[in-house]
Structure formats: structure tokens, C-alpha cells
Amino acid sequence: MIPMLGEEEAQAAADAVRSGWVAQGPRVAEFERRFAAAVGAEHGVAVSSCTTALHLALVLLEVGPGDEVIVPSLSFIATANAVRYVGATPVFADVDLATGNVTVETVDAVRTPRTRAVIAVHQGGVPFDVVALRGAAASWGVALVEDAACAAGSTAYGQPVGSGAAIAAWSFHPRKLITTGEGGMVTVDGADQATRLKRLREHGMNVSAADRHASAQPILEAYLETGYNYRMTDIQAAVGLVQLDRLAGIIAQRRALAARYQEMLAGLDGAIPVRDPAYGETNYQSFWVLLTPEFGASRDEVLAELAGQGVSARRGIMAAHLEPAYEDVAPPALPVTERLTRDSLILPLHHALTEGDQEHIVGVLRKLAGR
After folding, report:
1. Confidence band (pLDDT; 50, 70, 90) for 206?
2. Angle at CA 121, nearest 5°, toward 117 and 124?
3. A GO molecular-function term, please (predicted)?
4. CB–CB of 245/9 below 8 Å?
5. Which helix (H) or strand (E) element contains residue 248?
6. How many percent of the chain have pLDDT more than 70?
7. β-strand partners of 205
8. How far from 18 is each of 15, 210, 243, 333, CA to CA, in Å?
9. Is the pLDDT at 216 greater than 60, yes or no?
10. What is the pLDDT of residues 236-291, one digit of tens each?
11. Of 186, 220, 245, which residue sits at a domain end?
12. How far apart are CA 24 and CA 180, in angstroms?
């Protein structure tokens, strides 16, 4: 993933520096409003990363020791780590083979009376079935947190991912479609929730530092609860506002490149490319290919050959339960998760990718498959 950054972002950052507002200020507030509107949410609260967004989501829900939170193992490790931050226990669920996402069935299979929440990931930008999972969570009396780190601009049932979500966490890391360098967002539909999140991100203060500095009269702040320093800067938000203007074009280009990959890979036995689910559209933040035994070469052999041909591909999405940090967790059988993390690879997909690049990449795959 190569971020699409240019002179406009550089100028926006420079303007923020010249303004004197380099910490959290008016640009952050504008970015919150505009991003929330773009994803169909009522309120946005900008934070320092998607990891801190997930942490604050669980703090907001008052999840803690003794509680279980169901998460996919097939996700960046931050999804599971956030559960441990609040002293709760992560419980790993398996995923659907085609989408890489948890389903009602895989979540229900590991649900217990101690389950307080589910963190469901829109993996690689592929939306999970929001209607089914939101409905199930409501019927179980369990909170649903949507990890939408990769999903800005993806849709489900004709609406942006994030629309109708009780609480969702977003990432603006450089590997995402739009970036602020580092940074994240929590979106919620409740004004009271947004107010508390803004307090939690800023040391638990009842009034923001920006509001205190903008006031003509002294304001004596109070610290209402234990909070955190999870703020975004105005410099980051300035870049984010320019990036947000680019989002529609970025998605259109990525979907066109993905469609071309899919067409070129058609008929190549043993190589199954990711596609849109029936109920939505992915932004193709990641374009993965699942290899089956019919392909004739292992995933690691394919990665090695691609690297030798100058192609920077990556292994498939990690499985947290296979990492040393979670060796003390005894998960249920996760056959689909382990197959996807072992047998899939992520092909290059970015704004600088040319048709010639794609032909070279797919040519290497066809050669390995003996075609």
C-alpha cells in the first residue's frame, strides 16, 4: 500500500503549523464532522490510532475483568489486544472463507454467559453482514463494536459501512485508503457517548484544552474520571481533510484495479481472488488471493518467487491465536482462520500500480501454476 499524498496535503499541514494550532483544535473538529458524515454516523471522535479507538470503545461500554469479548483471530493483533487493555478475556471466533469475516454462526459457536461484547472486523475492507450480526447481537443482549479500520468507503446493503453502527473504530494509518500518518476515529450515534469519548481521550477533562485556550475568560477544568492522552493533532487532521476529498476517487481506482486482477486470474485453477459479498461492496483496501492445492505451489513459494521478480507481495492476514502473545489462550478449532492465514497472499494494489505491473504479477502466478 502506497499512500496517495501530494502537494495539497503538504500545504494543508503547513497551513496548520502557521496557524499556531498544532495540537487538537478546529481542524480536528472539522475532520470529525466531515468523516462522520461520510460514513453515515452522527458523531465522530478523532483519536491517535484505531487501537486507541477500540480501547475507548470498550471503556465506553464498561467492559472489564471477568467479561469475555469475542473477536476474530484473523485480524491485526490490535483487535485482540484492545480486549486485554480493559482486563477482559478475548475469545477467538472463526471466520467465513470467502469474506474473512466473523458470522452469526461463528460468533454464536463461542458465545457464553460471560460474553459482554463482540468486536467484528470488516476485514481488508470486505464488509461483514451488518444486518445479520447487528440483529443477532441485539437479540443476545451483547454489544457490537465494528472494527472498520480498513473499511472507509466500503458499503453494506447500499449504505456506507458505519451507517447504523452503534459504535465503530477507524484507522488512518498509511496502509489505509486515507491517512493522517497515524490516527483513528470512533463513530457513535449518541451525543452523550461522543461527549464522554471526547473526555476520555483528553485525560478525563470536562472541557477540552482547545476550548480553554479559546475562551476570553479563565476556565478551571475538572478531571471527572481516569482518562487517556489519545488526541489527534490539527496537523494530522489538516492532512485528513484533504485525504477525505480524495476518498471517492481512490475507491473507484482501487475497484477498477481489483476488477482487472479478477479478470486476469479467471480460469487460473487454485487461485481464488477476494470479491464483493452479495450484500455489499469492498473498497479493496487489500486484494488477497487464496491458494488451493490445485495451484501446485505453496503460498510461501509464491511469495519467494514474486520477491525474486521484484514484486512486493505479503502473506495473508495474520492469526492472533498463533502468535506468542496469545499462546496462553486455548481457542476452539479455527480451521478457516488457519487456512486463510497459511494459504493466502496479498497482491500489490495502489494508485501507482500500472496495467503492466499487473500483467507482470499475474504472469509470475501463471508461470508458477504451470500455465
Report:
1. confident
2. 175
3. transaminase activity
4. no
5. helix 234-265
6. 96
7. 223
8. 5, 17, 20, 55
9. no
10. 999 999 999 999 999 999 999 999 999 999 989 999 999 999 999 999 999 999 99
11. 245
12. 13
Residues 124-134 pLDDT 10s: 999 999 999 99
- Rounded Cα distance between 62 and 86, Å, is 9
Distance of CA 289 to the CA centre of its chain: 19
Strand partners, 186: 45, 169
| pLDDT confidence tier of residue 1, bands split at 50, 70 and 90 | low
Q: Are residues 98 and 117 in the same domain?
A: yes
User: Which are the contacts of 241, defined by CB distance < 8 A and separation ≥ 6?
Assistant: 12, 27, 30, 31, 34
Domain count, the chain: 2
Q: What are phi and psi of 139, to 5 degrees?
A: -70, -30
Same domain, 261 and 139: no
**Distance separating alpha carbons of residues 207 and 224, to the nearest angstrom:** 10
Structural domain boundaries enclosing 339: 247-368
Sheet holding 287-291, edge to edge: 271-273, 287-291, 344-347, 314-315
Cα 33 to Cα 105: distance, rounded to the nearest angstrom: 35
Mean residue pLDDT across the chain:
95
Catalytic residues: 176
DSSP string, 257-301: HHHHHHHHHTT-TTEEE----TTEE---SSEEEEE-GGGSS-HHH
Domain boundary among 245, 277, 294: 245
How far apart CA 59 and CA 62 sit, in angstroms, is: 5
Type of residue numbered 297: A
pLDDT by residue (tens digit) across 289-347? 999 999 989 999 999 999 999 999 999 999 999 999 999 997 789 999 999 999 999 99
